[in-house]
Amino acid sequence: MSKLSRDAKVIFLDAGGVLFDTFVKGEQRIINLLLERGYTRSEVVAAIHIANEIEKQFITTWEEEKQYYERYYGTIAKYLKNKEVAKELFLFTHYAVNCELFVEVKQVLENLSKKYRLAVISNAMPSMDLVFDRLGIRCYFEAIILSSSVQLEKPNVAIYELALKKLSVCNEESVFIDDKKENIYGSEQAGIKGLYLDRSKQDLEMLLKEYQIWFF
Fold first, then answer.
1. Looking at the whole model, is its pTM more than 0.85?
2. Which residues is 195 bridged to in the sheet?
3. What single string gives the DSSP state of each residue in 7-74?
4. Could you read off the pLDDT of 6-20 as tens digits, one per residue?
């Protein structure tokens, strides 16, 4: 069994894939809704294919995100010759409104927050910020660092260094948990101990127990 350094004071966590996720993925959510509206699968797939050709710039503001999705969903609606579809897709298939907590996460955060300072480092659009309120977990985190806000992305070492600075903590006193190995590599390049969460094998609680950082 592995063991975390006694010096650890802060645990940084990724968001999507670690704390919560959309259990029906993006394009499938669009397909499901439009099939219910009576469109054929071939029509929907063709519309999505065209929308996916839209170039996505690095989005840093709510307005930029809104404009991107209006164009994306609008392209689908135009292909299907029904402009009202764009509004429905925005309201019902957008990532932020479809996220759900993994079952163990609320209790994990409750327990960890009694011992450690917690923060998030996530590659995400601005709307991700709302997910923490909708799921009732913002209260557990001292900081929520989104790539869209700081204009840096994992695994760039700079985003981890920024997170350390924001919490006024040393890398030796920190741990980072992510479900992507390249992001773990990035954290360790910044001197932060990285823990890889493979949800096909274990959940967050199991990972923490493996490193003896689970507190009841």
1. yes
2. 177
3. T--EEEE-SBTTTEE-SS-HHHHHHHHHHHTT--HHHHHHHHHHHTTS------SHHHHHHHHHHHHH
4. 578 999 999 999 999
